[in-house]
# Entry
Amino acid sequence: MIQNLVISGIHFDLDEDLKKYVQKKIGNLDRYLSRHAKESTTVQVRLKESNAKGKRALICEITFNLPHDLIIVNESSINIYAAVDIAEEKLRNLLIKYKSENVHSKIHKAWLSKREERRS
# Structure
């Protein structure tokens, strides 16, 4: 579980069921992070209600502060639980991409350097 998870509501009342739901969905995304990134990652979840142009929309904005990157995902829907689900799916795909770019490249570089040392 992600330790530094802040959930806030803007023009929206948060109940305990919604907080638990967000903690369950977003908190389990740490499996896509390296050990180093897990310790220093902070996550902010903002749940907003908007009445723009007479239409009611519920917005889920998730900000992931990673060691070398900042990932922001926005999703709006007529149901806040649906907005959280869609934002979590987008965030999962972005974290998989982040991990493949940052973690695996370092491992590959270390493996190549060891291989070249053996040849010398």
User: Anything to note?
Assistant: The first strand starts at residue 4 and ends at 10.
